[in-house]
Design brief:
This protein is of the alpha+beta class. The protein folds into three domains: about 200 residues, no CATH class; about 55 residues, no CATH class; about 260 residues, no CATH class. Helices cover about 25% and strands about 25% of the residues. It has a 21-stranded antiparallel sheet that branches.
Length: about 525
């Protein structure tokens, strides 16, 4: 294998690649903990409490079909051979506890890293033998960084070993040995390691109260955790919350990320995530739904949240129309709303993945949608539906009331074609697209609920959280494979063959589930990738 790993790969792998099963150690423990040397004020910090199960985890995931497929795209014969080539470049086989110990690393002491802003970062690594670890890094610094010169000195906090290129003004890499750990820094960070080695405990991540509280709220089983003071920007706007803690665990059948953040708003606004008694409506969704969501909260509590969900333009249009969304819709619905998405048999994939922006493309050419809820008062909700047609005009849509076999329904259309149609059957309310889905839903709603479209092995994802969602990758794959030949366009045989190849490579992946809930005045989210059993 002639490919070479990037020069920064050593630090990254030593800190992050060892995510392993070690949830019993807490941040507040008095035992050895790399968090002792990570500053509370860092932009982001990651801690791996124990590297001991690294080999088991790497060996497991490198056997996945998807891993082998990706490795082949890198001109490797398999994922195992690709990982092995990287390990040879690193100089330490991180899949083996024995190999790490032979390199001077103590896996049981764990590892950590802090990002300080810009390109500044440093890492912490447990040490089994200082002399051996120094020799390991001397070889790596020489072969990977061209830093052939080493020096050792006593500094506040411990012993600093540096590795430099000839005639360089600053070291390329530095190790500061202190209290059973090595602080690792590159370039300008080497001179700052002493400050973190002597940092007071109360300024370290070890005594960060927000992190401690989050970890106490999260399940004890975790392989790594990350702490981000002030938020993370893309999921929770930066600066709107005091902190975000993310914990990860890797199991035989699942990879799970759990997020915890103190709720940045009032406790009243968190009421939307309080679980309620809810009717079981999943059995009214189509059996071919590959994506299913369920909301067990009180819809009336969404009055302060829905503007953020639909965007400013829709919010403004609703407000200008004078339509009281809370009073006319949210207050009249019971908890237990469910939604199902299916792949449309009319989907055209010959041109690649379509844009699902409804302003430019009708999404219902590619997916079918069914949403079912239950009203508190059927007559009151019927009057609400009659008020929708004039409101829809403000959104550039046309809603026409009509009858199907004596059932009052409302058909929606807009510039791109069919919209989402709706109706009320007894105390059940349905929103569906296209028309064929609405008609099928009307028939189902006249009888008892059928079998849930969610497979039993992932159904629990909809039972615990207030808002739960399941993406069934097996069902999505089956739906794509079952598309008629015309779905792939003229000469689409090659496109279909490529798509099927990707699907074959991912059949180790069973499903993705997401859950949102509230615990002790904190928002929690759980994202899980389920693996297929073998």
């Amino acid at each position: 294998m002639s490919r070479r790993a990037p020069s920064w790969l050593l630090l990254v792998l030593l800190v992050f690649a060892g995510c392993s099963r070690c949830g019993e150690k807490q941040v507040g423990a008095t035992a050895a903990n790399p968090a002792r040397f990570l500053p509370r004020g860092a932009q982001a910090s990651v801690v791996v409490p124990d590297l001991g199960a690294l080999g088991e985890k790497l060996a497991r995931f490198q056997k996945l079909k998807l891993a082998n497929f990706v490795a082949q795209l890198q001109n490797a014969s398999s994922a195992e051979s690709y990982v092995s080539s990287i390990m040879r470049q690193v100089g330490v086989d991180l899949r083996s506890r024995q190999a790490m110990e032979a390199a001077g690393i103590d896996p049981a002491r764990g590892a950590g890293a802090s990002l300080l802003g810009g390109d500044q970062a440093f890492s912490v690594l447990g040490v089994k033998d200082e002399k051996t670890l120094t020799a390991t890094f001397a070889k790596l610094a020489r072969e990977r960084l061209g830093a052939s010169q080493s020096a050792e000195s006593k500094v506040p906090g411990g012993t600093l070993v540096t590795f430099s290129r000839p005639n360089a003004q600053q070291p390329s890499l530095g190790l500061l040995f202190t209290e059973g750990y090595a602080l690792l820094g590159a370039g300008a960070m080497v001179s700052q390691l002493s400050g973190y080695a002597t940092m007071p405990a109360e300024k370290s991540l070890l005594q960060e109260p927000l992190l401690t509280a989050s970890l106490n709220r999260l399940p004890a089983e975790r392989d790594f955790y990350a702490f981000l003071p002030g938020g993370i920007g893309f999921l929770i706007p930066a600066g709107t919350t005091q902190s975000v803690t993310v914990a990860g665990s890797l199991g035989e059948r699942a990879v799970t990320l759990r997020l915890d953040t103190p709720w940045p708003d009032t406790q009243a606004s968190l009421a939307a995530l309080t679980p309620q008694q809810a009717p079981e409506l999943l059995g009214y969704l189509p059996e071919d739904s590959f994506f299913v969501a369920r909301y067990r909260g009180d819809p009336s509590q969404l009055s302060g949240i829905w503007p953020y969900l639909v965007g400013s333009s829709v919010t403004q249009a609703v407000q200008q129309s004078g339509f009281d969304l809370k009073g006319e819709v949210l207050d009249k619905l019971k908890p237990g709303l469910v939604a199902g998405v299916s792949l449309a048999p009319t989907a055209q994939l010959g041109g690649g993945m379509p844009s699902l922006d409804p302003r430019r493309t009708n999404p219902f050419r590619f997916i079918h949608l069914v949403v079912v809820g239950e009203s508190k008062d059927a007559a009151a909700f019927a009057s609400t539906l009659e008020k929708v047609p004039p409101v829809a005009q403000r959104f550039g849509a046309e809603v026409k009331p009509t009858d199907i076999n004596g059932q009052r329904v409302y058909f929606t259309s807009y510039r791109q074609g069919e919209g989402a149609h709706f109706a009320e059957v007894g105390d059940k309310v349905v929103l569906a697209a296209p028309q064929s889905r609405l008609e099928a839903a009307l028939t189902r709603l006249k009888g008892p609920a059928g079998k849930s479209p969610v497979a039993e092995d992932v159904r629990s994802a909809l039972q615990g959280p207030v808002l739960g969602a399941v993406l069934d990758l097996n069902r999505l794959s089956d739906s794509v494979r079952a598309l008629p030949s015309e779905a792939w366009g003229i000469g689409g045989f090659a496109i279909k063959a490529t798509t099927v190849r990707w699907l074959d490579a991912t059949d180790d992946l069973r499903a993705v589930t997401l859950g949102l809930s509230e615990k002790e005045k904190a928002l929690q989210a759980e994202l899980t990738l389920w693996l297929a059993p073998h």
